[in-house]
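Pipeline run #58 for the internal structure catalog. This entry was flagged by the ingest filter as a single-chain record with no existing model, so it goes straight to prediction. Upstream metadata was stripped on purpose; only the residue string is passed forward. Reviewer on rotation: M.T. Logging verbosity set to normal.
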Amino acid sequence: MAHLVGIDVGTTNIKIGVYSENGDILEEKICPTPFYPDKTGGMYNPDNILNSITEALSGFNDTIKQGVAGLSVSSFAETMVGIDNAGAVICGGLAWFDTRTEAQFRKMQSILNPHEIYSLTGLMPHHIYSFYKLLWHQEHRKSDFNRVQYWTSVSGYILYALSGEMSFDYSLASRTMFFNQHKRSWWEQMIDIVGIPKERMAEVVPSGTVLGRVKKSYAGSTGLRPEVKIVTGGHDHICAALATGVFRTGNMLISTGTTESITLSLDQIPDVHIESMKRPFWWGHHTASGRLYALNGIYSGGYTVDWLLKTLNENYDVFNRCSMPQDVHIPFFIPYLRGGEYPESRGAILNLEGTMDRENLLQGTIAGLCFEMRFVWEDMVNALNMPVKRVVNAGGGSNNRYWMEMKATVLGHSIEVPEDREGSAKGAALLAGIGNGVYRDEDEAFSRTFRLDCEYHPVAGLEEKLAGMYDVYAQLIDDLKALNIKMQHSLNSLK
């Protein structure tokens, strides 16, 4: 039986897994994603990421590596990597959440038509997208910018280094804000604004495309056989959707990591208008062949929990001692610690009283994350008029029983949790298998490899109370938006 390598380059960690054809993890390694923080967010060094991956691969069991037939890579989106004529990285690396591109976003507001952007790219203008990152590089790193021969994604760069073939898969291209979803090609008008010749953008291809075999130099340094096929991967959330069966209509994936997202599979480009939604969702090309997706979420899911525990000097065990809220006297936590859908988004704690204690803060924070998730869930599902039949939750946050029980209760829906919590690496491995012909298609790959670990159900007697609190929360975030905008404009005037 063939073995398959799936690599996930995440915001915080890199996970590498070797999987059997049946989806069993034969060996895995996790290491920190090399990152260089600064006051606006920070930068990734793609070469350091590549070195971490190759070093980890070299340490895998040699016997297991001899059975590897294919390899693919998932990664976070938006970050761009610029490569020169010699194949060296010379530009790029801005973290997806970095805020230094807010200046470029503001400059473009009067130039870009958000309706046109959304209808062609599936995205509402926002400073995190690759378009604004390239504008920043063009303005602040002009010399290097002009020397770039090819621009690709983080996943595309790792695959290029291993195979020698340049690519940019549809699912990651869908997060650039200059990929025409209708034509499956780069949108030349937007690329012209940045000042990049079209031929300097890596070729867009579907996920699961065989690029070639691993280069001899990397076969030697990693211990992989030279016959191993390198296959295009995709956006981490959408790779996880593939691994959990969320390419079938009515299936939803909640992916809970540093961020938290919800993904629905679509069979065609959605016919929606941004005016009809409170918080427009994003849509784009799936890693599953011929499918599209609708995606929305929160920028600071697991990040919020980590921030709270650090602030309280606690660890995750504290949730084992935390009870579900029995009355409405808990803080209302607005989890915009890493921003939100408008540039001035900031987090807040409301309804705070001097009688509240540490447990109340924990209750309010987890409830706030669940309320925010329900808000984006309802807006997306209602706009698409697509009932949800099945919900799967992947990612590290699915290990937090307290959070999962609260989430099932607030959403009013049972939630499946797979054995493999980190579905992105497994999704990449399945793409490697599809590219290698190990599986006929996505359906066979999912059917042969999915394993259910547990299922969470709404807590009896708590749904009605939390639903009432959610209604209050939904009103508060509208009021907070006006306050945030006023506050940030006033603070900016003091600079």
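catalog note: The first strand starts at residue 3 and ends at 9.
catalog note: The CA atoms of residues 319 and 402 lie 6 Å apart.
status: ready for reviewer M.T.
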